[in-house]
Batch of 4 targets.
Target 1
Amino acid sequence: MGTLQFHRVLISLFPLVFLLCLSSLQFISAYTVPDKYFINCGSDSNFTVSGRVFVGESSLSFSFPKQSSTEKDTNQSSPTSVYQTARIFGRQFSYEFSISSSGYYAVRLHFFAFSSSSSNLSTAIFNVSVPNFLLLQNFNASDSSKSALVEEFFLRIHTGKFIITFSPLESSFAFVNAIELFILPNYFIPNETRYVSVGGQGNNYVGILSLVLKRTYRINVGGDAVTSDSDDLWRTWELDDPYLHNREDARTSSSDSNLNYQGGDESVGPLATRYTAPNTVYLTAKKSSSSNLTWGFPVEKNSIHLLRIHFCDLESTSLNVTFFNLLIHKNFTRMINSIDVSTRLPTPFYYDFVVDSDDYGHVNITVAPDASAPIPNAFLNGLEMLQIVDPSDSVPGYEAEDKQNHLAVVLGSAIGASVLICIGVVGFLIWHLKFRKPDEKKAENSDWGSVPNGGGSSHSRLSEVPNINLGLKLSFHELQHATNNFDARKIIGKGGFGNVYMGVLKNGVRVAVKRSEPGSTQGPTEFQTEIMVLSKIRHRHLVSLIGYCDERSEMILVYEYMEKGTLKDHLYNSKFPRMSWRQRLEVCIGAARGLHYLHKGSKGGIIHRDVKPTNILLDENHVAKVADFGLSRSGPLDQQPYVSTGVKGTFGYLDPEYFRTQQLTEKSDVYSFGVVLLEVLCARPAIDPSLPRDQVNLADWGNLCMKKGMLEEIIDSSIKGKIDINSLRKYGETIGKCLQDDGSDRPSMGDVLWDLEYALQLQRGAIRREPHEDSSSGASQSIQLPNVRRLPSLSALSEVDDNSIVRDDETDSEAGLIFSQLNIDDAR
Ligand SMILES: *[C@@H]1O[C@H](CO)[C@@H](O)[C@H](O)[C@H]1NC(C)=O
Ligand SMILES: *[C@@H]1O[C@H](CO)[C@@H](O)[C@H](O)[C@H]1NC(C)=O
Ligand SMILES: *[C@@H]1O[C@H](CO)[C@@H](O)[C@H](O)[C@H]1NC(C)=O
Ligand SMILES: *[C@@H]1O[C@H](CO)[C@@H](O)[C@H](O)[C@H]1NC(C)=O
Ligand SMILES: *[C@@H]1O[C@H](CO)[C@@H](O)[C@H](O)[C@H]1NC(C)=O
Ligand SMILES: *[C@@H]1O[C@H](CO)[C@@H](O)[C@H](O)[C@H]1NC(C)=O
Ligand SMILES: *[C@@H]1O[C@H](CO)[C@@H](O)[C@H](O)[C@H]1NC(C)=O
Ligand SMILES: *[C@@H]1O[C@H](CO)[C@@H](O)[C@H](O)[C@H]1NC(C)=O
Ligand SMILES: *[C@@H]1O[C@H](CO)[C@@H](O)[C@H](O)[C@H]1NC(C)=O
Ligand SMILES: *[C@@H]1O[C@H](CO)[C@@H](O)[C@H](O)[C@H]1NC(C)=O
C-alpha cells in the first residue's frame, strides 16, 4: 500500500475509530501506573474495590512488631470489606515502600473506626508522617464510626525508599484500614500558579511540587456524587449543594455530548486531559443567567490551598457568545471564556489558583454573569481544594531517619512486580468479562495495515492515548509556526534523514519536529512505519508521536520533546554530568521496559531493529524512552521469525545471527541491547577504529574480557569502584547472556529487565546476596525480603504459550493486549 493510499485509509477510518473510542470511554478505568501499592491492612485476604486489588498483608510478607495487632469488625454492617479489618500499632511503626519511578504520587489512607470486643478504634489518637511532612497531627478517626474517612495527599516521591510512619500518642494507639500509593499522571499538579489572597492578587506561588497537598474538598457541581468506581484515579467527588449560598438562583445544566479533551500529555492546564476529572464532572454544571452564584468553603484559618476550578461550556453552540467573571474572595476577577482556550465546544478546561482563607476561615468562589455577553450565562462544573502542607521541623527527612527506630518493612520491587501482575490480570479479567463487546474483536482482528490508528481499536490502549494524539495530522503551517519557520537555531539534532527542530505547538506543548529531506535515508516506508507503529502503541518508556505532516511532499514527524537528550550524550558529551551507576541502571531499566513492551505488549510483537544509545532518549526527569521506530517490524502472529530482504540496523549493534541468517527475531534487539549495556558500563563506542584490532568491536572485546574475568578493567573510570560488586556481577552476567551467539540462548527482554532490576536492588543494598548463595554476609545483615527470587513461573509461562506475563508499569494495558490476542486466537 502506497503512502498516499495509506493516509487516505487513515483519514477515512478516523471518524469511525474516533466514535468507537468515545462510545467506549465510559467503561475505561485503566489508568496504568508503574508503582502502585494497594494494601488491605490487618487482613490476609485480597479485596477488590473499583478495579484495585487491595492485597492482604500476608501476601506482602510484612513483619510486624509485637506491639502491633489486627482487629476485625464483627459488626456486619461495615460499608465494604477493606474496612472490616484494621492494623493496630501500639508504638511507632513505618510502612516502607520501594519506589522505582520518581514523580508526583497520591497517598490515600482509609480509616473506619469500628469497635470490637478488645478495642474501640474511635479512641485512637496518632500522628501520621512521611519524610519532612506531618500529614495528620493528633488525629482521631471518631468521625468515621458511621462511614469511612479517606485522607488523601499528593506529594513528590523520589526513586528509592519511601516511608509512611504512624506514631500513636502516649498511652494511645494508631490504626489504619487500607493504604493506597500510586503515581499520578505527568503534569497533574503545576509547580507554580497565580496567588490570590483576600487582599487582592499577588505574584505567582512557586514550588508547589516541593510541598504536600491534602485534599479538603472535591466537588462535582450540578451532578451526582461521583464514587471511586467512576474516576480513573479513584477519587470521590461530593455534591456542591451544602456549599452553595443562593441555591434558589441556580439551575442545573447537563449534557451527554462528547467532550473535546484537548489537554496533552505534557501541558499544564488550562486544557483538561481525561485524567483531570471524570467526564461526569464536566458534563454537569450549575448555571445562572442573571444572578451571581457563590460557593463558600470553610477551611482552617490562615491556611493556603491550591484551588482548581473546572469549567466546560455545555450550552453554547458557538464560541464567544457566553463569557462571565469568576471572583475569588470578591476581590479577584477573571474572565472565563472558552474561546481563550479552545476552538471547539464543549472543551473541558480548568484554572488553578493558590488562595488563602479570609479572617473567618472561608474561601468564597463566585461566578457572575456578564450582561454584555450575547448570551449571558455563568456556570461552574467542578471544584477542588487541596491544602498546602509545609514541611514540619518535628519530622525527620530522608537522611536523618534512625533505622533502629523503624521496624521497617521492605516491599521489594520483586514483590511489587508480582503484585502488579495479579492486579493487572484480575483487574483486566473483571473488566473483560463485564464490558468486552463483540464489535471490538472485529476491530482487533483486522490487519493493522488497514487500521493504522490501532490505538483506537482497544479500550486498554485507547486509555493511554489522550485526545491530542488521536488527531495526529498537523498542518505544515502549524509546524512552520511552531519551529519559527524551521529556524536553524532551533535545530536540536541532525541525521541521515534531515534535521530535528525543537518547536512549540499552539497549545504550548514543546515538541521535537523531525523533517525528512528529499533523498534522505528516511523514505516514505520508514515514515509510514513509524506513524503506524507509534500511533498503535503508547508507553511510558517509548517516545510518543504527537503528530505528522505529509503536506507538500513533506514528511514530518512530531514527537514529544525529550529535554535531556540522548543516552549517548550522557555517556560521551562533556556538557552533561557523568551519570552515577544507579542512574545508568535506571536508564537501562527504562529502556528495557520500553523494548519489552514492544516485544510482548502488542499484537504479534514489534522488533525495533535499531537499538543503540542515540535511540534512547531522556526526558526532564531522566526517564528513559526508546525512540526511532523507522526500521521496526511487526512480527507475524504465528511467531515465525521474520525473514527480511536486506539487513538493516547499525553496525556494532547488529545481531551476528541476524547478519548470517537474515532471520529477524526479538532476540536481535536483545543482542543490540546487550551491546548498549556494555557501552553504558564502559562509556566507549560500540565501534572504535582507533583502538587495537581486538578492541575495535566493543561486543567482542567485552566478551573476551568477561571470559578472562577482567570486566572490571574496562569500566568507565568515572564509576569504577563505585559499583557494588554483586550488582556488577549480575549486570555482567546479563550482558553475557544477551551477547550469546545463538538467539535462542539469549534471554527475553522481560528476563533482561528482571535482571537489571535485580542489579539495581543489589546496588541499593536492599539485598545482600543471591538467594542460592551462602557466602560471607551473615543472615542478621540481610533485611527480610522473602519473595525476591526469580519467579520460575514467569519464564516458564512465556515458553509455554509465548504470551509472556507482564511485570512492568503497563500491567493493565499489557494484560489487555495479551488477552485480546488470546481472544482472537480463540475466535478463529
Ligand atoms: C453496628 O453497626 C450499627 C450501624 O452502623 C450501629 O448502630 C451499631 O452500634 C454497631 N454495633 C456495634 C457493636 O458497634
Ligand atoms: C468508642 O469510643 C467513642 C469515643 O470515645 C465513644 O463515643 C463510643 O461510644 C465508643 N464505642 C463503643 C462501642 O464503646
Ligand atoms: C477528634 O477529632 C475531632 C476533630 O476531627 C475533635 O473535634 C475531637 O475533639 C477529637 N477527639 C479527641 C478525643 O481528641
Ligand atoms: C505529633 O505531632 C506533634 C506536632 O509535631 C508533636 O508535637 C507530637 O509530639 C507528635 N506526637 C507523636 C506521638 O509523635
Ligand atoms: C481588594 O484588593 C485591594 C488591593 O488589590 C485592597 O486595597 C482592598 O482592600 C481589597 N478589598 C477587600 C475587601 O479586601
Ligand atoms: C518547583 O519550583 C521550585 C522553586 O522554583 C524548584 O526548586 C523545583 O525544582 C521545582 N520542581 C519541579 C519538579 O519542577
Ligand atoms: C468576543 O466577543 C467580544 C464582544 O462580545 C469581542 O469584543 C471580542 O473581540 C471577541 N473575541 C474574539 C476572540 O473574537
Ligand atoms: C465568605 O462566605 C462566608 C459565608 O459562607 C461569609 O461569612 C464571608 O464573609 C465571606 N467572605 C468573603 C471574603 O466574602
Ligand atoms: C455580581 O458580581 C459582579 C462582579 O462581576 C458585581 O459587580 C455585582 O455587583 C454582583 N452582583 C450582586 C447582586 O452581588
Ligand atoms: C492476593 O494477591 C497476591 C498478589 O496479588 C497473591 O500473591 C496472593 O496469593 C493473593 N492472596 C489471596 C488469598 O488470594
Target 2
Amino acid sequence: MAASSKLNPDASGWQTATQLVHGGQLRSEFQETSEALYLTSGFVHESAESAEGRFKGETGGFVYSRYENPTVAMFEERVRMLEGAPAARATATGMAAVTIALMAQLKAGDHVVAGRALFGSCHYIVNDLLPRFGVETTLIDGRDLDAWQAAVRPNTKAFFFESPTNPTLEIVDIPRVSEIAHAAGALVTVDNVFATPLLQKPLELGADIVAYSATKHIDGQGRCLGGVILGPEEFINKNVFDLLKHMGPSISPFNAWVCLKGLETLAVRLERQCASAKQMANFLIERPEVARVFYPGHESHPQHELAIKQMSAGGQIVSFELKGGKASAFAFQNALQLIKISNNLGDVKSLITHPATTTHQRIGAEARDELDIGDGLLRISVGLEDTVDLFADIDQAAAGLRL
Ligand SMILES: *Cc1c(COP(=O)(O)O)cnc(C)c1O
C-alpha cells in the first residue's frame, strides 16, 4: 500500500512517534483528517473484466473484507512500520494471531518446542490442539538455554515463547534462543504482547515471527479484540494470508479502526504506564503483606540484566505474592475500590487478577507450582490513573488483611 502523494505521504523515514500517528494512512478523495472507517464486507467492480482481474490477483484492488479491507490495511501498515517487519496481517483476536502464526508454519510430523510459561489459551493451542493434528510438542523452562537445546529433534520446525511471560514475568533470552533454533533449522515465533512493539523488537533480536493481541496495549482502552502477525514477506503474504482468507479469522474493519486510533496514543500511554508500574513495584516491595514482587524493571528480578538488555523499559505489569495465600488474595481484591478485578491487561484502567483461579486455573496445581504461580499471587496491569490514588487504594485494601 505504498502512498507517495502529499495527502498520503510515505511515513517510512519518520520517527516512531510520528509513524504511530501518520503511518499507513490511505486518505480518500474526500481528504479526511482521521482514517476512514470502511465498514463494508465487499467491494464493487466496474466491469466483469475488472472483477476477473482482481480475483486473479493481476490488477490489485480489494475483493472482499475476509481477504483485505482498506481500514484493516491501514492498521496493518502502521503496526508493520512500528515493528520494522517486512509484512503484517491483522486477525480478529490475539489467539487467532498465535494459532494462525503456528499453523502457517507447521504440518503433521513436525515438532514444536515452547516455553512452558504460556498464556492459558496459547498453552491449549500448543499442548492440546496441535498434537491433534499430528504436531509433536515439548514444553520447557524458557529461561534455560540448555533445555531449548536438549529439546531439539530432527523434525523440530518451530520455537515458540512469550517474554516477559504471564503472570510471573520470566524473561527468555531472544538472541540466544534464536541462535539455537536457527542452528536446528527452526523458526522462532514470539508472542510479544507483554513487551509491546515499543519496548521490545523480537525481529531485531533474532526472532522470525511476532504475534500480538491488539486487544491489550494497542487498543489499550478496553474496547475491542484484535491481533497481528508480523514476519517475512512470503510467510505473511502467502502462508498466513492463505489461512486467513480461507479460515476466516479476519478482523472487523471497525475493530481495526479502533486499534488504528489506539496506536496514535500508544507511546504516550505506555511511557506513563511503565513509569507508574516501576513506582508500583517499588511501593509493593516495601510492604509487609507482600512476600515477593515480580517486575523485570526492578533490580530484584532474577533476570533484570537480561530484561534491560532486550527491553527498553520494564513494562506495565507488576505481579506480587501476597502473604496468606488465596484467602488474603481474595480479601485484598474484594476490598479494592479503584483497581478493578479483570483478567484483561494493557488497559488505561488499572486491573487486577488472581491467576491461580482465573487465567491459569485450567493448567492444574502441578503446572502452576512449576511456574511459581502461588495461591497468593496477584497480577496488576497498571493504568493511567494517578499513582497517589492507586497506592491509597492498595493501602486501604491491605489494611483490612489479617496476617
Ligand atoms: C491476551 C493474550 C493473548 C490472546 O489475545 P486475545 O486478543 O485475548 O485473543 C495471547 N497471548 C498473550 C500473552 C496475551 O496476553
Target 3
Amino acid sequence: MTAAIGAFERMDGRLAVGGIDVERLAARVGSTPFFAYDRALVTQRVAEVRAVLPERVHLHYAVKANPMPALLQHLSGLVDGFDVASGIELRNALDTPTPASRIGFAGPGKSEAEVCQAVASGVVLEVESERELVVARDASVATGIAARVALRVNPDFTVRGSGMRLGGGPQQFGIDSERVPTALATLSDYGLDFQGFHMFAGSQNLRHADICEAQRRTVELAGRLGDAAPGPVRYLNLGGGFGIPYTDRDQPLDLGPIGENLHELMAGAVPKLLPQAQIVVELGRYLVGEAGVYITRVVDRKSSRCKTFLVVDGGMHHQLAASGNFGQVIRRNFPIAVANRIDAEPAGPVTVVGCLCTPLDLLGDNVELPKAGIGDLIALFQAGAYGLTASPTAFLSHPAPLEVVV
Ligand SMILES: *Cc1c(COP(=O)(O)O)cnc(C)c1O
C-alpha cells in the first residue's frame, strides 16, 4: 500500500512490530487501543541521519515529538543530546544517561521554577525573551550557579516549505535578531555563561533545498550576531524541521543534499565564522514518527445509506493528527491498514471512525481496505510523533491508551 507500511515487517499475513505479530502484541499489551513504537526502526532512522551528517555535527532529539520515557532511554543511547520544552520533559531527559550538558531547554513562558531547574541541572537554557534573561539572572544568584544560556533567535528570514513556521516575522519564539545585540550586552552584567544561539525556522518541511537554505542563513546570522557576544559562540543549534510523509501526496525528504550542505558549511562558513561552535541539529518527528503505529480494534460495522462504517475502540482523542484536526488545512487520510489481514486484497471503500460522539472523529475517509469486521485490528501509521501527547485524551472521558516500545 504505502511506504509507511513497508517499514514494518509482515508476519503470516499480519503486521509485525519489533518482530511480534500484531495479534500477539495486542494480547501482550492486554487491551486496545495502544501505540507501539518499533525500537529497530528508530535505531535504523538515526543511523540513516548519522550516515549523512558530518561527524562533528551533533544530533539531538526533540523530546516533545514523543516523550515516552522508555523511548527516551532507547534514544539516549543513539543521539548526542536532547532538546526539552518543559520542566517535566527536562526531568525525564535527566533520568536517561544523557549528560545535562547535552540537554537544551527551549520554549516560551518558562516559569521561574523551570528556569531554576534548568540552572541547577546545568543544561543549556535557550532563552526566549528579555524577561527570561532576568529570570535566569535571579536563578543564578539564588543557586550560586552561572546559568548556561543560549539565545533563541527569531531570525530576520523565513523558510518556505514548512508545515508549521516557528521563525521569521513576528513570533512568540525567541528574541528578534535585531534586538539580540542589546540582549547580549546584558549577559556579562547578569553573570550568565554565554553558550551561543538557537534558531528553529519551521517544522515538517519536505523540501531539502529550503532546509539547506535555512541552515546556511542560520550560520551566517549566528556569525554576525556572535560579533556582539561577550565570548566565543560555543553552541549553535540549527533547528531541524525535517518532515515525514503523512499522505500519499507527500514525497519523502531527500537527506543526501542536506548532508552535503552541512559538509560544505562545516568545511567553510562554520570554521570561518564560528570556529569554536558545536553545531547541533535537532529532530523530533523525523526520528520517531514513522516508527510508531496506533492499533485500535473494530467494535462495530454498520452501513448507512450505501456507506460502510467501521467503528473502532480508539479515535481522535488518542491520535488527533490522523483525524486531520492537528494542523492540517485540508483533511487527508493517514496510511491505514487492517493489521491482522495486511496482505489481503481491498474489498471496497469503508469509512473508519472512532468512538467519540462527534463527526470530527474520522480516521479513514472512504479508504480501500480488505473486508474487516468486529474484532479486527486497524493500524494507523505515522503515529510515532505528536500522537498520544498531542491529542485531547480527556475529550469524551474514555480510558487512556497504553504505549509500548517493542
Ligand atoms: C518542536 C520542536 C522541534 C521538533 O520539531 P519536529 O518537527 O518534530 O522535528 C525542534 N526544535 C524546537 C525548538 C521545537 O520546538
Target 4
Amino acid sequence: MADPGPASFSTRANALLRKNLTYQKRNLWSNIRLILIPFYLCIFLVAIQILFDSQVNNSDDNRCGCQCIPNTNGDGKCVKTCGIEYSKPSQAFFCSIPSPSRWPPLLQIPQPESRAVSLASNGDLPNESCRRTGSCPVTILFTGNNKTLGTSLYGNLLTSSFTVNSSDFLQGLAHNVLGTTEEADMTNYLDPGIASNVSLYNIQSQCVPNAKFPFSFGQSPLEFKKELICAQGLNLWRNKTTEVNDELFKGYRKGNPEGKINEIAAAYDLLNTDMNNFNVHVWYNSTYKDDSGNRPSTLVRVSRSVNLVSNAYLQFLQGPGTRMLFEYVKEVPKSESRLRLDIASLIGPLFFTWVILLLFPVILSSLVYEKQERLRIIMKMHGLGDGPYWMISYAYYLTISMFYFICLLIFGSAIGLKFFRLNDYSIQFTFYFLYVNLQISLVFLVSSLFSKVKTATVAAYIYVFGSGLLGLFLFQFLIEDSSFPRGWIFVLELYPGFSLYRGLYEFSQFAFRGNLRGQDGMKWKDFSGSAMDEIFYIIIVEWFLALMAAYYIDKVSSSGKDPLFFLKNPFKKSPSLRRPSLQRQGSKVVVEMEKPDVTQEREKVEQLLLESSTSHAIVCDNLKKVYPSRDGNPPKLAVRGLSLAVPSGECFGMLGPNGAGKTSFINMMTGLVKPTSGAGIVQGLDICNDMDRVYTSMGVCPQHDLLWGTLTGREHLLFYGRLKNLKGSDLTQAVEESLKNVNLFHGGVADKPAGKYSGGMKRRLSVAISLIGNPKVVYMDEPSTGLDPASRKNLWTVIKRAKQHTAIILTTHSMEEAEYLCDRLGIFVDGSLQCIGNPKELKGRYGGSYVFTMTTSSEHERNVEKLIQDVSPNAKKIYHISGTQKFELPKEEVRISEVFRAVEKAKSNFTVFAWGLADTTLEDVFIKVARTGQAFNVFS
Ligand SMILES: *[C@@H]1O[C@H](CO)[C@@H](O)[C@H](O)[C@H]1NC(C)=O
Ligand SMILES: *[C@@H]1O[C@H](CO)[C@@H](O)[C@H](O)[C@H]1NC(C)=O
Ligand SMILES: *[C@@H]1O[C@H](CO)[C@@H](O)[C@H](O)[C@H]1NC(C)=O
Ligand SMILES: *[C@@H]1O[C@H](CO)[C@@H](O)[C@H](O)[C@H]1NC(C)=O
C-alpha cells in the first residue's frame, strides 16, 4: 500500500469528530437525560407557579374582597358584590377605588426619642431630659437674609391650640398642623399615619402637658378612631444656611460627636424673601425606608411643609385673617388589581444557574476521563495533535451546550415561564451563548488540575451547587443591599458562577416587574442600564483569558514542564542535579561492567549519530531516566544510560524481569515521560522536541489497553486509521484486513463495543490499532499477554508481516515469542542492557552448555555422578531431588555421541527410569543473565 503521508489538520479533526459523534450516538440516552434536566426543572417551576397561584396569587387575601349582598327585591337571593367596603384591610389594596378618600395632609416628624435636643454646641435646643418624658419638641429651623422677617413669619407657622371650628371636618382640621412619625406609603389611597395605630400629633406652639384630643375620621369600613397628642413645636432661627445644614446633619447618629440621633423635622431657608418676593428652600428627610429597603415616596408628606411656610408668608403679608388652607390629599381613582407574583422569576436565578452550571461537571468529567484513561495520550501517540483535539472538543462541547440551553429556552417558553417569555430572546441567547463559551474554556483550564474523574466530578458538583446557593443567599443579598459598594459587587461578579447568577437575576427582575405591570421584560434598550452590559464584558474578557490560560497550561504541561514552573524556586536544585555523585558513579560502574556486545551497540550508535543517517528508524543515545526521590526514598534510576539502534524492518525484543525499566523506556520513547538525559532520535526527529511529528509515524500498543468502552473494534480502527490519513476504500480495506488479521472479524465481534471484549480480544484490538496505517515505528508493550495459543500464533504472523517496513520494539515475557518474532534481543536488567544480540548468538554466548538430566533410584545416584565425571570432568550439578539429577555440561569438552554411549553402558549396569540431554534454551540464558545482572546491581 502506498504511504499516504501524515494526515492534515482537517483529516485529523474529521477523524476525531466522527469518533465523538459515534461515541455520543452510543451515549444517546445519557445525552437525552441531560437535555431532559432543564425540561424537568421547567415543569417543576411551572408546578410551583401553579401552586403559588392557587395559594397566594389567587387567594382571597390577595384580591379585592367580595360579599354576597341580599337582593333588594326580597327574593332571598344575593348578588356577589366586590369593593373596598366589603374587603378586609389586607384586601383593600387590590380593590378598584373609583373615588378615593380624602385624607388630611400630614407632616413627617421624628419619633419623640429621636427629636433634636441640646448637644454641646446648639444651646437653644431643649435639655436632653425631655427624652425621658417623651415631651421633646419638634424642631423646625429657619434661616434667610432678613431675621426680622423670618421671625415674624415663623410666628405664623403653628397654632397655639387645637381647634376644629367648622361644619366641614377636614376644613376644620386644616387649621391645625398634624404630624406623624409613621412612614408614608407609595400611594395616598390610605395614609399609614392615619390607618395604623401609631399616634397622630398636633404640633402647636404651646402645649399643655399630656393634652390629648380624641378624634375620629372617615366612615366605615375606613373609619379610624385616633387620639391626637399635643406635640410642642419649636421654631429656631439660624444665621446661616451652613449652620442649618450642619445641624440637620447632626440628626444622624454618625453626624454628631455624641453618636446620638438628633433629628430636625424640617428646615426652611427664606433666602431673599421680602414683601414682594417669596423665595424658599425646604429641607426634608427622604431617608425613610420600609422593611424591604424600598423608599416609599416621602414626597407625599413634603406638600404639607411647603403649605405651612406659604401660609405663614401669606399671613405675614395679609394678617391672621387670611389663610391658605390645605384641606386634604386625594389619590387619582384606580381600577381593581390582582397580585401577580411570578414565583419562577423569583427563584429562577438559582434554578437556572444550576441548569447551566450542570454542564460543567459533564464536560469536565469527559475531558478528565480521556486523561485518566490515557486516551488523550494514546490518540496523541497516533498522531492526533493538540490543535485538532482542542478545536474539535471545543466545537463539540459548544454544540452540546448550545443545544442544551436552546432546549431550556424552548421548554421554558413553551410552558409559559415569564422568565423566558418576557425578556428579549436575542439578549437571552447572547447571554447564554457567551456564558457557555466561558464555561467550556474554564473546563479546559480546570481539567489540567485533575487527573481522576472522581475528584473532578465531586469538585465540579460542589462548584455547581455552591455557586447557586451562595448566589441566592449571599450574592443576591448583597446586590439588593443598596449600601453595599458596587465596586465589590463587580469584584464578586468576576467569579464566573456569580456573573451567571447576576445575569439570570437581572432577567428575573425584569420578568418579575414586567409581569407585575403587565409589560415586557428586558429589551436591548435596557441593556446598559441593568448591569447586564457589565456582565457581558466580564464574561467576554474572562472567556478570552481562560482560553489563553488553558492553551498556555496545555502547551507547557505537554512539553513536560510543571505548569507552575515559573513559581518554583529557581535556586532549589532538581533531584537529578542534587545527586550527581550517585549518577556518575552509577554510569561508571555500568561502563566497567558493560559486556562487549553492549559496548559495540553503543559505539554503533555514536557512529550513527555522527553520520546523521536515517537508515535506522530508532536511535537512542545514552537515554537515562531518574525518578525524583519521594517520601524519603532515594531517587530511582529507572533507565541508566541506554544506547540502541533499531533499523527499519527489524523487530527488537526487550526482555527483562519485572521492574527492570522496560516500560519506562517505552514511555520515554512514546513521549509519555521526558528522559532525564540522553537523546532519542526517531525517523531523524528528536523525541524531546519533535514529538508531535514523531507521533504521525508511530504506533503504540500500550501495556494496558486504552480503549473506549462504548466504541466497537471497527470504530476504533476507523478512528485511528483516519488519524493515520487513510481514506475511503484504503481505510475500509485496511480496517477489514487488520480485523481479519487479529481474528476479530468473524461472528460480529468487530461490531461489539470494546467494553464487552474479553482481555485477549482487547489485546488483539490494541495490537491492530498500533499497526494500522503502516507506521514507521511501533512500540509494543507485552502484546500477547493473556492470549490463547491460537490467537497468539495469529498475532505473531501479523507482527511478522508488519515488520517488513517497520521498526518494532517489543517487550515480552515469553521467550518463545521473543525467539519467534525478534531479530535481535536485549536483556534489560535494573535499568541497563546486559546483553544484546540475535537469539542464536545469545544462546551460544551465554548458554555454552548442555543440560543433562537423569532419573534413577536413589541408591544409584552415585553411579550417575561417576558417569558424568567420566564424560565431562567440569560438569556442574545444578539440581538434585530424590533420584533426579541435573548437570550442566560445558559444550567444548562434551561430545554428544560420547554421552549416548555412556548412557547405554550405564543402562546395563543399573536401571535408568528416564534421562535427557538438552541444549540451553533462551529461558536459561535469560535467567542466567538476569541473575548476574541483579547480583551485580545489588552490590553496586
Ligand atoms: C426686613 O424685613 C422687614 C419687614 O419685615 C423690613 O422692614 C426690613 O426693612 C427688612 N430688612 C432688610 C435689611 O431688608
Ligand atoms: C368659628 O368660626 C366662625 C366663622 O367661621 C367664627 O365666627 C367663630 O367665632 C369661630 N369660633 C371659634 C371658637 O373660633
Ligand atoms: C446670629 O447673629 C446675631 C446678630 O447678627 C448674633 O447676635 C448671634 O450671636 C448670631 N448667632 C450665632 C449662633 O452665631
Ligand atoms: C432621616 O430619617 C431616617 C429614618 O427615620 C433617620 O434614620 C435619619 O437619622 C434621619 N436623618 C436626619 C438628618 O434627620
